[in-house]
Amino acid sequence: MEAEGEERQWSSLIVPSVLEIVIEKNFTTVPPRYVRPDQEKTEILNDSRLSSEIPVIDMKRLCSVSAMDSELKKLDFACQDWGFFQLVNHGIDSSFLDKLETEVQEFFNLSMEEKQKLWQRNGEFEGFGQVNIVSEDQKLDWGDMFILTTEPIRSRKSHFFSKLPPSFRETLETYSSQVKNIAKILFAKMASVLEIKRAEMEDLFEDVWQSIKINYYPPCPQPDQVIGLTPHSDAAGLTILLQVNQVEGLQIKKDGKWVVVKPLRDALVVNVGEILEIITNGRYRSIEHRAVVNSEKERLSVAVFHSPGKETIFGPAKSLVDRQKQSLFKSMSTQEYFDAFFAQKLNGKSHLETGGPTFMKGVAADLPIFQNFSYSYEKNIYLAHQFFYFSYL
């Protein structure tokens, strides 16, 4: 059914399972590699007032002739001011989401022997493990994840799909298809409100590269010493997340403070990724976010990422550039963009700022040092760590 992809693959160093550490060691002190003194102690705004201000978009209204205009304005505001919104009435049945929750839980409860069959391999980033691990002394997140490419079908890794529990595989295929359709509608609505041509938005995602990341965050005896997922902004075009078991943990950075995204039953959390920020020439913003853990409850989430096909060339939409009289980013291929992304560790909002000639805006992109610089893994590491001086703000 699935063909083995032949594209150049990215990789991440293989790391142990956090869940297995919790089960086997029965400890009260966090292992040193997971202690995160590097994480800023930014104020957390855990009040219902501000959390309730995170926009909620009603997809039924968004697709309704009578209510569409007002909902489009809300969508535009959400993408500009927050970079995040919760999506309700999206059409995915509640009973199906309950089934997904049960099967995700069962999947992470598989024995270590079964999980090893699905572990990341050297030179690959799909499977059980973590991503953006580039050195043996790099601090680790307090969480396990499972990553899988779902679209296009030709890029699927058959050795992963064939070993998934059959019912879970079927559920993932159904869910990924449903979410892809939602993303397609959202891209069309964004193009409409931005008044840009189909070729400048929707067509870029026609041969969509879709991947799923399933996250499991075990309870931690010292939750204030660790981080579930390092602060970052997503590299994709659009991320659609399900907070599977309704446990708090997702936080977004708003005006320099962390705001809790309180789970809404059956809602999907949608956020703008850096690729969409580039396509909209900076009008829509990819926002820094993170996951935290607690001492009592495990947390489960499923994130689905949507990006242009790996060979697709994308850049700021010409319609927007013509109106704004300036192109803030250069055009590039999805492959080039992710080559740089996976060559560095997660580090806040820095990826778009440190990506070298492919990403730079304005005068910095035209400096002689950036010209005729071909891409390779080693050069991307150099770019990622040396050109952080050029702020995109």
TrEMBL record:
<dbReference type="Pfam" id="PF14226">
    <property type="entry name" value="DIOX_N"/>
</dbReference>
<dbReference type="InterPro" id="IPR050295">
    <property type="entry name" value="Plant_2OG-oxidoreductases"/>
</dbReference>
<feature type="domain" description="Fe2OG dioxygenase">
    <location>
        <begin position="208"/>
        <end position="308"/>
    </location>
</feature>
<dbReference type="GO" id="GO:0046872">
    <property type="term" value="F:metal ion binding"/>
</dbReference>
<keyword id="KW-0408">Iron</keyword>
<keyword id="KW-0479">Metal-binding</keyword>
<dbReference type="Pfam" id="PF03171">
    <property type="entry name" value="2OG-FeII_Oxy"/>
</dbReference>
<dbReference type="InterPro" id="IPR026992">
    <property type="entry name" value="DIOX_N"/>
</dbReference>
<keyword id="KW-0560">Oxidoreductase</keyword>
<dbReference type="InterPro" id="IPR005123">
    <property type="entry name" value="Oxoglu/Fe-dep_dioxygenase_dom"/>
</dbReference>
<protein>
    <submittedName>
        <fullName>Oxoglutarate/iron-dependent dioxygenase</fullName>
    </submittedName>
</protein>
<keyword id="KW-0223">Dioxygenase</keyword>
<dbReference type="InterPro" id="IPR044861">
    <property type="entry name" value="IPNS-like_FE2OG_OXY"/>
</dbReference>
<comment type="similarity">
    <text>Belongs to the iron/ascorbate-dependent oxidoreductase family.</text>
</comment>
<dbReference type="GO" id="GO:0051213">
    <property type="term" value="F:dioxygenase activity"/>
</dbReference>
